[in-house]
Amino acid sequence: xxxxxxxxxxxxxxxxxxxxxxxxxxxxxxxxxxxxxxxxxxxxxxxxxxxxxxxxxxxxxxxxxxxxxxxxxxxxxxxxxxxxxxxxxxxxxxxxxxxxxxxxxxxxxxxxxxxxxxxxxxxxxxxxxxxxxxxxxxxxxxxxxxxxxxxxxxxxxxxxxxxxxxxxxxxxxxxxxxxxxxxxxxxxxxxxxxxxxxxxxxxxxxxxxxxxxxxxxxxxxxxxxx
Length: 226
Prior knowledge:
Blueprint: E1 4-9, E2 12-17, H1 23-35, H2 40-62, H3 68-75, H4 79-107, H5 109-129, H6 133-147, H7 150-161, H8 167-195, H9 199-217
Antiparallel strand pairs: 1-2
Helix pairs in contact: 2-7, 2-8, 2-9, 3-4, 4-5, 4-6, 4-7, 5-6, 5-7, 5-9, 7-8
């Protein structure tokens, strides 16, 4: 019910309805002011950072495929045992994103990035140094836990910082990293396995993960949207 303003003129009492701003108008103004906090340059750099992070999960999956036979031979296990490491990796990757999305709503996107990427980096070090099948299995699951939320987080970040009418353009920029991973990773994995050894594949993943984690730490003003 709209509030009424009562006043009297020459003994005649009149009532005038007081108009209040609608909820939709208020929320629209609030949304526009939130997006206005970011310049075009800031939005572009944020999308670059989340695209680099979104590049890591497919890179981690597909760089592993060319070295399966080599791992089975050097660790003295069957291909079926190596397949279990792939299944466990994908299982963890399917379970974790829902949890991380909720945590990012409560703690902020940047916090979840700064937890996920160091977990991924630690697992990469373990994988590069491991010499046994149990270590391979465990560290691949930990690695998956570190990467599994990066795609969902990237989409959430783009939604947070871009207006709806321009969101598709920025979202496509983020997806470049997602689509580039399956193209680059198998070639890189096969080449490195044949030349410098399969251990170097995980050192390469460490380089990408640590670089993106460092980028998340330094430009804090890019991330002040939560």
